[in-house]
Amino acid sequence: MSESDQLIQAFDNRARRRDDRRQLFRMVLGAAAVGAGAFAFTNEAAAQSVTDNDVLNFALNLEYLEANFYYYAAFGTPIPTASIGTGGIPADSLPINAGAHVVPFTDRIVREHAREIAADELAHVNFLRSALGSAAVAQPQIDVGITPDGAFSTAARAAGFIGASSATAPTFFDPYANDLSFLYGAYIFEDVGVTAYKGSSSLLTNKTFLDAAAGILATEAYHAAIIRTTIDQLGAQPGLKAATVRDDTELVSNARDSLDGATDLDQGIAYVTSGAGPTSNIVPTDANALAFGRTAQQVLNIVYLNKAAVTAGGFFPNGVNGTIKSSANNA
Amino acid sequence: MIDHDTLLEVLELGEQRRAARRAFLKTAGIATMAAGGVSLLAACDANDDDQGTPPATTPPATPAPTASQNDVDILNFALNLEYLETNYYVSSVFGTPLNPQLRTGVGTQGDVIGGRAVTFTDPTIAAYAREIAADENQHVVFLRNQLGGAAIAMPQINIDGGANGAFTAAARSAGVIGPNETFDPYASDENWLLGGMLLSDVGVTAYKGSARLINSPTIVDQAAGILAVEAYHSGLLRTMLYRKGLNAPVLRVNAGKISDARDLLDGPIDLDQGITGDQGLPASTTASNIVPADSNAIVFGRTAAQVLNIAYLNRAAVTAGGFLPNGANGNIKTSANNA
Q: How far apart are CA B133 and CA B94, in angstroms?
């Protein structure tokens, strides 16, 4: 095969993955974020009317969640109480989090990444709290534990990694068990943070906030790349459910996609083949090589682990704090 | 009010056209690969009737009124960087630079100096190179389509791996190599990662720095999507440098030197970081530093002028040099005066 044929086919295969998704767009009247010509895009949430504080507080809820997970994994404790606000609920005050623990890392590289991300996520919590001042929401109830009916187990069950019910062994998923389970746990919501910031960036009216949000978006994308690349380096190993670790990630992505509506806004890291050789999929993108965005409501579908319009569940047993708290109705 | 059914039909036609285009490309070869332009689509229509190609519904060739001159200038500035990145990655993977059909536009069209295929030894690195090449190529296509007739031509680009190449100049100033040595980013997996890191972090800071200057919320949304992809790319490259640096510490050292060199170019404020660091944690808890970010864990941004200091490899206010020997095309072309 000539070089030109190889190049064409490499692009071909990446395009084909996208074509599969395009079929789904027919089901969505809004056709959000699909280009129909120069500057004719609809951004994800243009119809919403929210304040900058609403958006930042929504993001703060997600940062509380991420920071607590990475803190437990890296250091064995939840984030410091000084960072959760007056009336905030410490993660370790909830019985559901009793099983969370420091990860017994064997790969020092993974451990060093966990520490880096933990520090970053706490910095995001502190930054957003500082930017919001007295308007900052306190930390809500967060489930980063390992109980059979908890959020991680529910998400892992949806992906087929554990028993089909909380009574079928293995009954629970422990994202703190080892290097790989930690990476899976991180993978379950790391890309979600990227799509949340991407989906809300154009809603911010204050340019200083937009500047900061763009910087946090980029940080979350770096984190997601760390997790996805590191998983990929272990990717040929047997998976928990699928033949390989790489294929397992597709199961998680499909589970997320089943929650957030008809558009496919998610991709695993399974390779695509081409005449030029295997091509990775570290970056989840649309046909224009732009990262996906989700509305706040779609993000809530995922963190509540519910495709219906609800106000609590999953990683936030009592819901998020702030004015944006209801998920989209995709049921 | 847009008629959604009509919109969906248009989109679907676009997809059929893409299928037709690919079939066309398979037979036409390198000269027409992956081009997104109107003329190519017209050619597909004429050549690929078996695909059921619909009547032409070509995208608008000029920006809608919502794109202010300010936003056009910013997108064109970004397009310069995408031309540069795309040529590096596409050359690395395939040994040939950007498709000539994707080089046309406003201003003086340049050539690509240097670039060659890397003989990758780690198959995962080869897979990453293919992915990034496809993404960057698509960014060029996307920005050109968005800008329509306002899109700039590709400027002269130096991605040469030889003694007179921009990479060697950058590596010498960084101290990665001696003053008489050559840095060839195409020579090995490791060199390719360093070359990619040199370019990719700059792309991230450029999009981050521009976000607040864009007028149109729609373009903010699009730029945010590209920013995130550039950050994924940069995160991928830095993660692999860190991982391979466990057994080859010189890689981590050299990544730090590249960062320091960029810092010397872009002015007195520290806007760059290598891949190791203590993150403010106790000394016993070593952490990586994949994310180049400030104390709030917010990724750095650079002004366009600062980005040009790095692209031109010059701390002074100049209009050409380094990776863009004849300067950037478009209205944003002068670097900052940090001399």
A: 9
What is the C-alpha separation between B230 and A214, in angstroms, rounded?
12
CB contact under 8 Å between A7 and B33, yes or no, is yes
Contact between residue A279 and residue A6 where contact means Cβ atoms under 8 Å apart: no
Closest B-chain CA to A63: B297
Q: What is the 3-state secondary structure (H, E, C) of chain A?
A: CCHHHHHHHHHHHHHHHHHHHHHHHCCCCCCCCCCCCCCCCCCCCCCCCCCHHHHHHHHHHHHHHHHHHHHHHHHCCCCCHHHCCCCCCCHHHCHHHCCCCCCCCCCHHHHHHHHHHHHHHHHHHHHHHHHHHHHCCCCCCCCCCCCCCCHHHHHHHHCCCCCCCCCCCCCCCCCCCCHHHHHHHHHHHHHHHHHHHHHHHHHCCCHHHHHHHHHHHHHHHHHHHHHHHHHHHCCCCCCCCCCCHHHHHHHHHHHHHCCCCCCCCCCCCCCECCCCCCECCCCCECCCCCECCCCHHHHHHHHCCCCCCCCCECCECCCCCCCCCCCCCCC
Cβ neighbours for A130, distance < 8 A, ≥ 6 positions apart: none
The string of pLDDT tens digits covering residues B232-245 is: 999 999 999 999 99
* Residue B325, both tokens: 């020997």
Residues B242 and B290: beta-carbon distance below 8 Å? yes
Chain B residue nearest residue A290, CA to CA: B225
CB contact under 8 A, A224 and B235: yes
Question: A209 to chain B, minimum CA–CA distance in Å?
Answer: 9
Q: Which of B39, B229, B184, B328 is nearest to A195 (CA)?
A: B229
| B164 secondary structure, DSSP code | T
| B22 lies within 8 A of chain A by CB | yes
In chain A, residues with a C-beta closer than 8 Å to the C-beta of B220 are 201-202, 210
Whether the predicted pLDDT of B24 surpasses 70: no
User: Over the Cα atoms of chain B, what is R_g?
Assistant: 21
Q: Nearest-CA neighbor of A139 among A93, A88, A97, A90?
A: A88
**Of A53-62, B65-74, B101-110, B129-138, where does mean pLDDT reach its minimum?**
B65-74
Taking each helix axis as running N to C, give the angle between helix B189-211 and helix B249-265, from 0 to 180 degrees, rounded to the nearest 10.
40
Q: Are strands B287-288 and B112-113 parallel, antiparallel or unpaired?
A: unpaired
CB of A38 less than 8 A from some CB of B: yes
Residues of A in contact with B232 (CB under 8 A): 221-222, 224-225, 228, 282-283, 291
Which one of A1, A4, A183, A274 makes the best mutation probe of the B interface by having the most chain B beta carbons within 10 Å?
A: A4
Residue A115 forms contact with B (CB below 8 Å): yes
CB of A289 within 8 Å of a chain B CB? The answer is yes
User: Which residue in B60, B235, B285 is closest to A225 by CB distance?
Assistant: B235
Whose structure tokens read 């949430």?
A45
CA dist B39 and B279 (Å) reads: 52
Contacts B93 to A, Cβ<8 Å: 7, 10, 276
| pTM for this predicted structure | 0.85
Closest CA to A150 of A95, A90, A78, A75: A95
Query: In this predicted complex, what is the ipTM?
Result: 0.87
Kindly list the domain boundaries of chain A, sorted by start residue. Answer: 3-303
Task: Please write the tens of the pLDDT for every residue from A68-113.
Answer: 999 999 999 999 999 999 999 999 999 999 999 999 999 999 999 9
Mean confidence (pLDDT) of chain A: 86
CA angle B41, B42, B43 (to 5 degrees): 90
> A120 — contact with chain B (CB < 8 Å)?
yes
